[in-house]
Amino acid sequence: MSFTSTLLQWYRANGRQLPWRETRDPYAIWLSEIILQQTRIEQGLPYWQRFMRRWPTVEALAAAAEDDVLKEWQGLGYYSRARNLHFAAQQVVAGGGFPTTLEGILQLKGVGDYTAAAIGSFAFGLPAAVVDGNVYRVLARHYGIGTPINSSEGKKEFAALAQQLLPANQAALFNQAMMDFGATQCTPTSPRCDVCPLQESCTALREGRIDQLPVKLKKLAVKERRLLYIYIRYKGMTALRRRPAGDIWQGLYEPWLAERIPAGALPVRLGVKHVLTHRILYADFYLWEPEEQPALPDGYFWTEEAQLEQYAVPRLVDILLQCLCTNK
């Protein structure tokens, strides 16, 4: 039996039941794909459900305020996904409906080759193979491919192989099977080789190279960054600003990001470590309750403490604010 036939047979018995697989609605499928970028299904599922309840159509999402979208996204991280999602919804509405070709889907902000192939195959049956981390791993191990998956050569090689294996009339089924097989069977660590239906034809298993594949080029060193947050409390009010473009957390809100600690400020929590993709943050958090209302730096504004929950904040800031509540 061929690789593709074996994979599809495995999927029919072992595929995951997910709500966005029960519809051909491109909006619901697209929303799931954007949420699941850099996010596990267990974490992303409740977000997808909340978005679908609050904005059940692409028109509803397009009409939403960006602040509301960012607030609903809070806790997922990688907030550019939420901003792109909102912008792309407006693109869809302006274009008169969801594009039905790969070329058209790729024009949506925040959509790359993988997401376009997923939407195209799941919603419209387009014969386009998805290639993500799961697909790289399955193909690299089964065919013994040592080309680095994050090199230009590797991306082309794996994309071509996935497309070659794809049955044109079962594109959605094949793509879902590849993703599920990599996620639950051919996992990054401790793959279930002893019960794998592809064990007899798997090159990596035969050659003892399971732990060596896929090959990935080393990334740049992770940078460290220190942040000093001052939470100002004055007569039930506090100060916030909306983070500007060109840095992390664009469009989210934060307390005063200071360069030095003002006299009278008390430490709430120090040295909080927060890991992002390309940097590690260390944050110190102080509470300052001045007797007179201080002048705020440019870009900051006063808001009632009771209204804080209305603002979308980065996960790190949310952690620090929770510490403040605990220490009251």
Task: Describe it.
There is one protein chain. By secondary structure, the protein is α+β, with helices and mostly antiparallel strands. 42% of the residues lie in helices and 14% in strands. The protein contains 13 helices and 7 strands. The protein has helices at residues 3-14, 26-35, 41-54, 58-62, 66-73, 80-94, 102-106, 113-124, 133-143, 152-165, 171-184, 203-207, 315-326; strands spanning 223-232, 237-242, 253-254, 256-257, 266-275, 279-288, 300-304. The strands form 2 sheets. A 4-stranded mixed β-sheet has the order 4-1-6-5, with helices on one face. Strands 3-2-7 form a 3-stranded antiparallel β-sheet, with no helix packed on it. The longest helix is centred in the N-terminal third of the chain and has 15 residues, at 80-94. It is globular. The N and C termini lie far apart (66 Å).
Short description:
The chain has helices at 3-14, 26-35, 41-54, 58-62, 66-73, 80-94, 102-106, 113-124, 133-143, 152-165, 171-184, 203-207, 315-326; strands at 223-232, 237-242, 253-254, 256-257, 266-275, 279-288, 300-304. With 328 residues, the chain is of the alpha+beta class. The longest helix has 15 residues, at 80-94.
